[in-house]
Amino acid sequence: MTTCLIISDAVEDTRKIQSLIADGCYISIVRWPSQQEWLSSYDDWVLWLSDTDLRGVLKASLDRKPRLHLLRHPDATHSFRGLGLNRCPSQWSGSTESLETLDVDLLQANDELVLNKVVVGRAFTYQPGGHAHSLWQRLKIAWAQLRRLPQYQPLALTVEGSQDQKLKTAVLGISLMAHAESSSLSRSILPDHSANDGLFYALLVAPLSIMQMLRAVVAESMRSASQQTGFLGILRVAGLRVHALRSFRYSVDEQVHQASVLDLTVLKGAVRLAVPEASGWEHCQMAGRSSWRVQALPSSAETVTALTAKPLPLIRHASAEDFRELYQTLRDNARITSGYVVFMILSVLLAGFGLYADSAPVIIGAMILAPLMAPIVSLAMGLTRQDFQLMKSSAQTVLIGVLVALGVSMVLSFLLPLTLETSEISARLRPTLLDLGVAILSGIAGAYAHARSEAAKSLAGVAIAVALVPPLAVSGIGLGWFSADVALGALLLFITNLAGIVFAASLTFLLLGFAPFARARKGLMTSAIAVLLVSIPLAFSFQQLAREAAIVDLFQQVSSPSLDVRSVRVLSSGQPVQIRLDIVRRDNADSVRIQALKQALEDRLSQPVLLEVTWIDQY
Questions:
Q1: Distance in angstroms (rounded) separating the CA atoms of residues 1 and 185
Q2: What residues have CB less than 8 Å from 542, skipping those under 6 apart?
Q3: Which residues are CB-contacts of 579 (< 8 A; sequence separation ≥ 6)?
Q4: What is the pLDDT of residues 3-44, one digit of tens each?
């Protein structure tokens, strides 16, 4: 066996050369490229070279195919990843007993050998690194890439596989690599593979918006290898041609080039690597199975043209085919049907009985049964897209539902000889900003559940959260009782829910890309004004609620421990403050303690206090 150590002409430090060779070991030294003609005399080449020199030596070895022994070099950053240089020793020991020979593939891009990766456009973090950066360096690189994201414009490319596959698409970038063992990609995205199966990976990165890209960055750490990111195409092929009508930017191991055609092929078993038996390299003597997973990539001419016309948008603007089915569903939901009226009547009756019986489970059943959420979401879509026909039909459907609910609950109040204000009825008479917050969150959830089929199972939870029918039932009961406080208080809660849902759902549809901002602006402004108007009485009610909570807290501070107070309720926080107490009477001294408590409250509040006490005697 004849062996030589190949080093660069640039290496002049003889001490450095000696440090590459173990003590007692003799080996011939060959300089590259000045002495490259000597290489034909050797069967084993020990390489201590930078990426640039190593690429030249590998090309020279293609015909002769000597056995290559790699040594770690500080300037071989791409070899570190692509050829597994991290598994190689830093010194030649002269021993080959524990080594095995492995034929390893190389990737070739436009007749140039690839050590690690080829990147077309911007592949961001979906590519193997050049070397192991620190966490801080990786965060800086990721931030710099995301900060420039709005400047990048997708490329219109045609991708042709080696088995007559063809795809016209728009991508932000393509990452291509023969080996990905040392990359986190193989652990998080890429399926099982081998380093020498005659195939390479092409990872097509095609986000439709900046928001979609940001969501993927956040979710990537929680994604398993079996789950494919929503804008990635993954190809495993032996050959690929990428071409476009105009020249595009690509890089081979971070060396930038320009071309309008990029041909990529695998050189099967191009080099013979001598590696340790426990190196971790995969042994695959059979050809791998190619795959072509491009379902997530934009392929329609309309979408490709829209994406490549300008830089990546902040929010994806859905094309007509993307929401045709949703739009038809929302149109159907906006129509008045016999089923809609029947379910409105049944849900209101169920809510009415639940309110009279003070039964929360029955009321929850009425919430799920009620069909009122669907036309409200349709109204939000109509406002977002300024579809006046959809707005008109959905508004009519909502109005009919409201009138049916008020009418049925009024009749129910006449038929049932009960005028008791239960706790479930009382809970819907004083809406606050908290109820508006619930309505807004429910509107977001409702719009998202309609727009994303995988989230539709959450619609029942949305109906329970927003509770549209019970306030209408309470309002109708108030009308039947001729009680303005009950009727108007509950009606305000319904209007709060309606305004919050419409505004939040419209905004959600905008963010999901179902209309450009210029079209949605008028509808958003209208719904926002409605929310602001309804917020005025809610703010006063919330302020009063906060003051009552403060009074109850103050009462707890000044109350005598000897008083057995069972309940405290603030009836009025005005002049005077009215508080109702339920107290278990222990002895006659309790009346004296009540007077002391009243005086303490007046001193702390600086205003008169009226206590209404209900004594509870125990025997």
A1: 39
A2: 432, 433, 434
A3: 551, 555, 568, 569, 570, 571, 601, 609, 610, 611, 612
A4: 999 999 999 888 888 899 998 888 999 999 999 999 989 999
